[in-house]
């Protein structure tokens, strides 16, 4: 009984990993988040002084305050920005950056 539960949970994990391997966009975004964590403790687009999000400011969002206090792990705005960058790189045919520092900061 216990062994069956372990096999079932291992099967769902391998299915999840296969799904991640199939989607290069998600894999690239996860790699960029890991790379960003290596260089930044808080979001690089977070202003400590005003608690504003530079991504929201540059997109002319009325409320540009950061809801997550600069934590970018799991932040929908940061992930959305990375998705936009991915789409831009793919549409222009430019090679995808391997490191977060290689991403151009032009919105």
Give a quick precis of the structure.
The protein is mainly α. It has one domain.
Can you describe this structure?
The model is unreliable at 5-9 (pLDDT under 50). The longest helix is centred in the N-terminal third of the chain and has 21 residues, at 2-22. β1 and β2 form a beta hairpin. This protein is globular. The chain is built from 4 helices and 2 strands, in the order ααββαα. A two-stranded antiparallel sheet has the order 1-2. It has one domain. The chain is mostly helical and 107 residues long.
How would you summarize the topology of this molecule?
Blueprint: H1 2-22, H2 24-39, E1 46-47, E2 52-53, H3 54-58, H4 76-92
Helix pairs in contact: 2-4
């Amino acid at each position: 009984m216990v062994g069956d539960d372990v096999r079932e949970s291992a099967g769902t994990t391998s299915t999840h990993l296969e799904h991640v391997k199939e989607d290069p966009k998600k894999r690239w975004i996860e790699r960029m988040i890991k790379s960003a964590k290596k260089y930044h403790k808080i979001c690089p687009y977070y202003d400590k002084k005003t608690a504003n999000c530079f991504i929201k400011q540059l997109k002319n969002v009325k409320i540009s305050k950061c809801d997550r206090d600069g934590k970018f792990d799991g932040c929908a705005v940061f992930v959305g920005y990375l998705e936009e960058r991915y789409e831009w790189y793919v549409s222009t045919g430019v090679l995808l950056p391997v490191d977060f520092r290689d991403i151009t900061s032009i919105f």
